[in-house]
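Re: [help] complex structure
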Amino acid sequence: MNNTKKPFRLSLGMMITCLMLVLAGCSTNAAGESNTSAANATALPTENDSKTLTIAYTWNPAGVDPHGDDSWDVMRSGAGETLIKLNEQLQPVAWLAKEWKQEDANTWTLKLERNVTFHDGKKMDAESVKASLLRSTQNSHLAKDLLLVKDIEVVAPDELKIITTQPNSAIISSLADPSTIILDVDSMKKAGSYPAMTGAFKIKQFTKDVSLVVERYDGYWGQAAKLKEVTMKFVTDGNTRLMALQAGEVEVATDIPIDSIELVEKDSKLEVLSAPSVRTHMVLFNMNSALFKEKANREVVDQAIPREAIIESVMRGYGTKAKSPFPEILPFGKVAEQAAGGTTEQLLSADGWQKNAAGMWEKEGKPFEATLLTFPHRPELSVMAEIIQNQLLNEGITVKIRKVENIDAELAKSDWDLAMYSMLTAHTGDPQYFLNIFYQSASESNISHYVSKPLETVINKLNESSDTAARNALAIEAQGIINEDLPQSFIVHPDNVFGVKKGVKGFIPHPIEYYYVTADVDIT
Amino acid sequence: MLRFWLERAMQMLLVIFCVATLTFILMRVSPGDPARILLTTHNIPASQEAIDALREEMGLTDSLWSQYIRWLGDVFTWQWGTSYMSKEPVAGELLKRLPATLELASAGAFVMLLATCLIGLVTAIFSTGLLDRMGRLMALLGASIPSFWLGFLLIYFFSVRLGWLPSMGRGSIAHLLMPAVTLGLGLGAVYARVLRTNMLEMNSQNFVKASRARGLSKGRILIFQVFKHAFLPILSMLGTSFAFMLGGNVIVETIFSWPGLGKYIIEAITARDYPVIQGYVVFTSFLFVAIHLAVEALYVRLDPRLRAS
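Output below.
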C-alpha cells in the first residue's frame, strides 16, 4: 500500500513544482512591473513632461553601438545625429556640420555647429568628431567603403579637414549614413554605460529582444523634444505589430504588412502614413543563363510585367512604377521609359523561336522554360512572381517558381534564370555607391553577372566628378545603358508604410528609412 | 546505482559530441555566407573588400578542420564561441534568454497538465455522454489547430476585441496567459484522450474490482487507484513535451514577442550566426538528454518493477 501511495505523491509533487515555477517566474516579473510603474509615477511632474510614445518596431538590434551593425536602429531612436542630414528631397543639408567646402579632388573641410554637447555633457568639437569618424571607419565596413578616408585633420576647434584615398564626391551624402553617427568615443570605454551621442533623445535603457527606451536630452542644442520618453518595442512579427496597434498598446507600428493596410484604413482610431522609398523591387536576369543571354528574351519578360496592375493589386497603391534602379523622387531618378523592342511574337520569332501545337514557344525542340527564384522575407515579391508567371504563360512561356529560404545564397549558384529581388538603391541619396557595388564587373555584389564596359566608364566618370549637375547627368546616362541592356527589370518602388494612432503628430515618414523619431514628434 | 549514473553521463557526453559534430557539418553545407548576410542587413550591397575582411574576422577563411577543432574546444569548455551579431559569448547570450523560455515552457507544461487531468478525468467519468464527445472534439482540435493560428485568435479576442490581456511582451501573469495556453492546450487535449483510454482500461483491472468489492467509495477508487496508475505512462510523454517546449517554442515566442531562446534562434538562423545556431543545438540537446534522464529516474522511482530490473 505504501509503495503505491509514494509514486502518486511524487507526481502530485511534480505538478505543484511546475505551478510554483510558473508563479515564481510571474511574481518576479510582477514585482518588476510594479517597480516600473512606480518609476513612471515619479516621472510625471507636469502635464507636458509626461508625454510618452510607444512604437512597435520591426527589427531587433543586437546592441546600441552606432558604429556597429545596428546603427540604423540607433538613428531611428532619435538618439544619434550625423554631420549631414538628408531632407525629404534627399538632398544633403546641414546637421552637426553647418557648412562644408571642397578644397581639391580629395580634400573636404567641414565647419561644425558650436553649441553641441554629447549626452554625457561633454562639448562636441573637431577633435571629438575626428575621433568618432575614425572609430566609425575602423568598426563599420560600410562607413569605410562610403567615406574612403585617408586622414582627418583638425583645422580649428570647430573645423576639420577630411582627406580621401581617391576622389570621392559622394562623401557629403555619405556623411549622412547612420554608420557615421557622431559620438563621444570615451563613452564607449565605460562599462555599463550607453553611447553618448548628440540627439534630442538619449538612451535610457536597452533591453535585448525587448525594447530600446530613449528619454528627452535636456542639453540638446536644437529645439527640445516634445516627448518625455519614447519606447521602441522590438516586435518582429508583422501581424503582432498590427494587433498591438489595434489594441492600443502602441501608438505607432512600423512596416505594416501590405495585405493588412486595409484593416488600419478601416479603423477610425488609426491612420496610415506612407512615403515613397528609395527601395526597388526587381526581377534579376542571370546573364550567364543560356536563356537570358539573349536580350530579346529579357525584353519579352520585361514587357510581360504588369507594373500598374501590380501597384494597384499587390501594393494596394502604396508604391510607384519603377523605370530604373532609382526612384523619381531623386534628381537622378527621372529617366526616360525604355521603348518596347517589339511584341513577344516579333522578338521571339526574330530570335528563332516558334510556337508549337500547344501554343508554347520552343526552339530546336526545346520549350521556353525558365526558373524564377523568390523568397519568403518579402511576401509581396512571391505574389508578384505568380502574376509574372501567369502573364508569361499567356504569352506561351513556362515559368517555374522556386521559393528559397536564402535568396543571396541561391543567387551565388549558377543554376537560376530569373529571381525576384529587392534593394535600397540610394540609401545616402547618392547613386555612386550602388552603381559601383551592383554594376562593376569585378564586384561580387554584381549578382546578375552583368558586364558592360561603357557602363563602367560612365560610373568611373561619376566617381571622379564633383559637380552635382554633371553627376546627376552621368547617373541618368548610366541608367540609360542599364535599361538598354536590361540586366534587371525594375517593377516598383514600394512606399514605407506606418500605422499610427490618430493624435500622433510630427511623425513624418521619410523616403530614407532611418529617420523615425525626431524632436517634433508629439501626441495629443 | 553509481554505475547507472556513470553510464548515463558517458551517454550524455557521446550525444553532445555527435550533435556538435553534426551541427558543425550541417552549418557548413547549408547555403548562405554569414559575412555577406551581416553586411547586407539593410539590403545595401556590400563591397568585395568588406566581405573578405569580415570573413577573415569571423575566422571563416581558416581551414574547415581548424574551425571544427576550435568549435569542439568551445563546446567542451562550455563557451560556444562568440556571436557574429552581438560580438558577445554565445553561452552568455543563451543563458540570458533561458529564464524567459523556462518560464513560458513551465507555464505551458502547467496548462498542458491541467488540460490533460481535467479533460481526461471528466471524459473518463462520463465516457459515453455529451462531455466525452466534447472531449473528443477538443482533442481533434488540439491536434489539428496550428499554434500560430490559435495564438493570433487569442490575441484578436483577448487583446484587440476585449482589451483584457496584453498582446505581446513579458512582464506579468497577464503577459503569460495567452502564450502558455497556446503552447499547452493543444498537447493537453491530445494527452487527455490517452489518459481517458488508460483510465477506462484500468477500470476493468482485478485490483479495481477488488477495491469495489471491499466497499471503497467510487471517487476514492477513481482518484487514488485508477487515475494514479493510468497517469504513469503519460509521465514520460509529458517529459518529452516539456523538453520540446524548452527547445521548440519558436512560433509562440515569435507571435507573442516573448524574449526567449526560440525567438533568438530564428533571428540567428536568418543572420547565419553560426556560433549561436551551433551553441543552441548543443544546449537544447543537453536539455533534452537531461530531462530524459530526470524522467527515467522518476519512472524508476514510481514503478517498483523497473527498479527491480
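The radius of gyration of chain B is 24 Å.
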